[in-house]
Specification:
By secondary structure, the protein is α+β, with helices and mostly antiparallel strands. 45% of the residues lie in helices and 18% in strands. The protein has twelve helices and ten strands. The strands form two sheets. A five-stranded antiparallel β-sheet has the order 2-1-5-4-3, with helices on both faces. A five-stranded mixed β-sheet has the order 7-8-6-9-10, sandwiched between helices. Helix 12 links the parallel strand 9 and strand 10. Helix 9 packs across helix 10 and helix 10 runs antiparallel to helix 11. The radius of gyration is 26 Å and the shape is globular.
């Protein structure tokens, strides 16, 4: 909100406010680490030109914006972007980190041999903090760009570009190569234009998500709705097929919940549903999707989880529900149980996975209450 101060001014302000606005011990420790003289300032990482001045030099990427905005879902959004970027720039790997809760969080990667979240390195944090594109010709030679995951992949050079739309930082795009070399002006042009287009696309999907948010969240439990669960299942199934990753799901249906409502009252019944929802959310992983599937049914989508891992989680949840006291008009609480169905992806459409999931639950329910069952449908290949 104001012009940047010099290093000396910044340290002077820290010292002035030490013991008041700033913790004095922390200020002293910081000054000891960074030094108190201008000579201690590390050289700035090279920043590359802003995309506005280069717009006319790469018209082939202009159509990318329309592609991104027209994308039907998040998976398609990133797939189209990566494909377009790879055809316009020599690269070996890409990551996109988005801002969540004030910090960079992994969103998507392309070209990495090991699936899973890619931790942002110093290069990405620097680009996000300064809001300028930053290039590094040799990651191993710059301690501020230390990236163990990139080195493990054999990646040597990188450029990180902040994703900014309407003066709002949305994330960072990072492109890697396996050869150690500086990025040419032409490559920088392509990358900056691509980052501008990606930021615009991300801003568009964010606006759409905000508009749809009332329809995406169940008002009682705070979980996502059945519709969102189905959409995410379709997107995650496409990703699992593309990258040959496992995908599992769990469907939980409370036993005799209507009788619980009649005995305890619908107000306490709503509290019980919220308690179950919280229980599922606490056991789910950060990439899992927990949804209210029906009136007294819940579902969890488990990306990159095998059938055995899904069964282990399902059994943990079944026992947790059976052993937990729920709201009751009488002291000591009431008891609930649930039947649980588990299914894993075998490729194909999301409808097949959901069908297996419902079949697993139906078979479990046919055996009585408080049951767990896995079902895998056998399908002929066309």
């Amino acid at each position: 909100y104001r012009a940047a101060c010099t290093r000396a001014e910044a340290i002077a302000e820290l010292r002035r406010a030490a013991g008041g606005h700033f913790d004095s011990v922390a200020v002293q420790a910081l000054v000891e680490v960074v030094g108190d003289t201008p000579e201690a300032v590390p050289p700035e990482l090279p920043a590359i030109a802003q995309p506005e001045a280069l717009l006319a030099q790469a018209p082939r990427l202009i159509a990318l914006l329309a592609e991104l905005v027209a994308s039907a879902d998040e998976e398609t959004f990133y797939a189209r972007f990566f494909d377009a970027l790879a055809t316009n720039c020599a690269l070996d790997a890409v990551t996109v980190h988005v801002m969540r809760g004030g910090a960079l969080a992994f969103a998507r990667g392309h070209g990495w041999t090991v699936p899973g979240p890619i931790v942002p390195c110093g290069l990405e944090n620097y680009a996000a903090g300064a809001r300028v594109p930053v290039a590094c010709a040799d990651l191993a030679a710059d301690s501020r760009c230390a990236d163990a995951q990139a080195r493990a992949e054999g990646l040597r050079a990188a450029v990180a570009l902040p994703l900014v739309a309407a003066d709002r930082l949305l994330g960072v795009l990072t492109v890697y190569r396996r050869r150690s070399a500086a990025w040419t002006p032409e490559e920088e042009t392509v990358l900056e234009l691509a980052s501008a287009m990606l930021a615009a696309g991300l801003a568009g999907t964010t606006l759409r998500a905000r508009a749809e948010e009332p329809l995406a969240i169940d008002a009682l439990t705070g979980l996502v709705t059945h519709r969102v669960f189905v959409e995410r299942t379709s997107a995650e199934l496409a990703r699992s097929v593309r990258h040959d990753l496992p995908l599992s799901a769990v469907l939980i249906d409370l036993d005799d919940f209507e009788a619980y409502n009649e005995a305890q009252g619908y107000g306490l019944g709503d509290e019980a549903l919220r308690q179950v929802a919280q229980m599922l959310a606490e056991h789910a992983g950060p990439a899992d999707v927990v949804a209210r599937f029906g009136a007294d049914a819940f579902a969890i989508l488990l990306p990159e989880r095998s059938a055995s891992a899904a069964m282990e989680l399902a059994e943990t949840l079944r026992q947790a529900i059976a052993q937990s006291p729920f709201p009751s008009r009488l002291a000591g609480g009431a008891r609930l149980s649930a039947c649980v169905g588990v299914a894993s992806s075998q490729g194909g459409e999301h409808r097949a996975l959901l069908s297996d999931l419902k079949t697993a639950l139906a078979r479990a329910r046919s055996e009585g209450s408080n049951r767990l069952l896995f079902h895998a449908g056998v399908r002929e290949e066309v």
